[in-house]
Write a structure and sequence with these properties.
By secondary structure, the protein is of the alpha+beta class. 39% of the residues lie in helices and 12% in strands. Helix 3 links the parallel strand 2 and strand 3. Strands 1, 2, 3, 4, 5, 6, 7, 10 and 11 form a nine-stranded mixed β-sheet that branches. It is built from 15 helices and eleven strands. It folds into two domains: 125 residues, no CATH class; 205 residues, no CATH class. Pfam families: Amidoligase_2.
Length: 414
C-alpha cells in the first residue's frame, strides 16, 4: 500500500494489463511493490458488498404520524418502480420470526433506525435501507450502479431526503467466494489501522469523533501502543490462524470507557461494532472466516453519487489491502494523496465508470487542524450525552440484518 515511500505511479506500474490511469505523477520505482502488483494481480480477491443507508426521510405528499406508516409508503413506491423490497422489524420476536425468517439477500430491506432521532412533529423519521448483496467485480458494475441509481431516483422524487450527524453509510464487504482467509483479514486490519488518519480526512469532522464510529487504532487493545509498529506486532502476536482473535482485537472496548459504561453488562471489557471498521460479524458468524467486515465511518449518502463514491473507496481499498498490505512499512508516514492516487488507479483497473465521483470525494479531503493532531484522536469520548446513551442501549439486541442477508446469500453461492 502507498505511503511516503516512493512507489511506482499507477501509470508506470507493470501489470501486464491495459488500464486507464488517472495519475501523471512521476515516481521512482519501489521494486517490492512493483513486483507485488505485477505478480499477484491475477490473485487479487474480488468482493461482494452490502450497503446500509441511514437517512432521515419525509414523504412529499403525506404527513405520516409514525415510522411504520412512512416505511409502508416507501415500500409501496419502491415496489411500484420495480425495486423489490421488504419491511422488517428491527427486533426479532417470536411472531415476526414466524412470518419472515430472514430478509432476502437479493432485495432491498427497509427498517427503522434507533441511532437516528425522529422528528414526529415534522413527520421526519430515521429509516435504514439495506441493499442486496452485490458484486463489486470488474465487468459487473452495471448491476450495482443501476440498483443504486434507481433507489435514489425514487427517494428524491417522492421523499425529502435529509441527514443528521447520526446518519450514516455503512459498507459491508466479503470476498466473492463468501468467506475470508486469515491473510486477507490480517492485511485489511493492518491497512485499516495504518491509513486511519487518511480516511479520517475524507469524512466530516463530526464523523471523526462519533460514538458510533470510534477509532480502531485507539481502542482498548491498540490504544496503549506507542507506534504503528507495535500495533502490527500486536496483530502478529495472535498467530496466523486465529480469525476470532484478530476480530476481537480490532473491536475491543474498555468497560471503563464512555461506551463501556453505557452498555457493558458485567463491567468487563468487551467487543462492540461501534468502531470505524467492524470485524464483529466474523465472530458472530462462527469464525473460520465467515462474515462481513464493515466500514462504518462515512456520513449519510443523500445522493447516488455519494453512495457510489463510498462503495468505490471501500471496494478499492479492500482490493489494495489484500494485494499490498504486506508491503506496508509501519515506520513510514501514510499520505492521503498517495492513497488517493492508488484508489483511483484501482477503480480504473476495475473499469468502473464515473471515477470522477471518487476523485471529487478525494479532493474534499480536509486534514485535522494542527491543534487537533494529538495522540488518541478518534478514541472514545470522555463522556456521551444522555441521548447517545439511550440510543446505544436501544441498539443492543437489535437484529443483525446484514448478517441474516449474508447467511441467505451463502445458500445461493454454495
Amino acid at each position: 500500500m502507498p505511503h511516503n515511500t516512493r512507489y511506482p505511479s499507477p501509470s508506470s506500474a507493470s501489470t501486464g494489463r491495459s488500464h486507464h490511469s488517472s495519475s501523471s505523477s512521476s515516481s521512482s520505482y519501489y521494486s517490492p511493490v512493483r513486483d507485488t502488483v505485477a505478480l499477484n494481480r491475477p490473485f487479487i480477491p474480488d468482493f461482494r458488498f452490502c450497503m446500509e443507508l441511514g437517512l432521515v426521510l419525509r414523504s412529499r405528499t403525506l404527513d405520516h404520524k409514525s415510522s411504520a406508516d412512512l416505511e409502508r409508503e416507501l415500500s409501496r413506491i419502491l415496489t411500484k418502480q420495480g425495486i423489490v423490497n421488504s419491511i422488517i422489524s428491527p427486533r426479532q420476536t417470536s411472531s415476526s420470526y414466524a412470518v419472515q425468517e430472514s430478509p432476502s439477500s437479493r432485495e432491498w430491506t427497509i427498517t427503522s433506525e434507533a441511532s437516528i432521532p425522529a422528528h414526529p412533529k415534522d413527520h421526519r423519521f430515521g429509516i435504514k435501507l439495506i441493499s442486496p448483496f452485490m458484486k463489486f467485480a470488474a465487468g459487473k458494475h452495471e448491476s450495482w450502479l443501476n440498483k443504486i441509481y434507481a433507489l435514489f431516483h425514487t427517494l428524491n422524487a417522492d421523499f425529502e431526503v435529509t441527514s443528521s450527524h447520526q446518519c450514516f453509510t455503512h459498507i459491508h464487504i466479503v470476498p466473492v467466494c463468501g468467506f475470508w482467509k486469515y491473510s486477507q483479514l490480517e492485511c485489511l486490519a493492518k491497512s485499516a489501522l495504518y491509513f486511519e488518519g487518511c480516511l479520517d480526512e475524507l469524512v466530516p469532522p463530526y464523523r471523526r469523533k462519533s460514538v458510533w464510529a470510534k477509532s480502531n487504532r485507539y481502542n482498548a487493545y491498540f490504544g496503549s501502543a506507542k507506534s504503528m509498529r507495535q500495533c502490527f506486532d500486536r496483530i502478529d502476536k495472535g498467530g496466523k490462524l486465529d480469525i476470532n482473535g484478530l476480530a476481537t482485537r480490532m473491536n475491543w472496548c474498555s468497560a471503563n470507557s464512555a461506551t463501556g459504561l453505557s452498555i457493558s453488562e458485567d463491567g468487563q471489557d468487551f467487543m462492540t461494532d461501534t468502531y470505524r471498521w467492524s470485524f464483529t460479524s466474523l465472530v458472530i458468524e462462527g469464525g473460520s472466516g465467515f462474515g462481513t467486515v464493515a466500514f462504518k465511518q462515512p456520513p449519510a449518502s443523500t445522493s447516488a453519487s455519494e453512495a457510489i463514491s463510498w462503495v468505490m473507496v471501500v471496494g478499492c481499498f479492500a482490493r489494495l489491502a489484500c494485494v499490498l498490505g504486506d508491503s506496508i512499512k509501519p515506520e513510514d508516514k501514510p499520505l492521503t494523496k498517495s492513497l488517493g492516487e492508488w484508489l483511483v488507479y484501482e477503480a480504473s483497473w476495475c473499469q468502473l465508470p464515473h471515477v470522477k465521483m471518487l476523485r471529487d470525494l478525494l479532493k474534499q479531503a480536509t486534514p485535522e487542524m494542527k491543534e487537533g493532531l494529538n495522540k488518541g484522536k478518534g478514541k472514545d469520548v470522555e463522556a456521551i450525552t444522555i441521548d447517545e446513551d439511550q440510543r446505544l442501549r436501544k441498539k443492543q439486541g437489535e437484529r443483525k440484518v446484514v448478517g441474516e442477508k449474508y447467511r441467505r446469500m451463502l445458500k445461493h453461492i454454495h
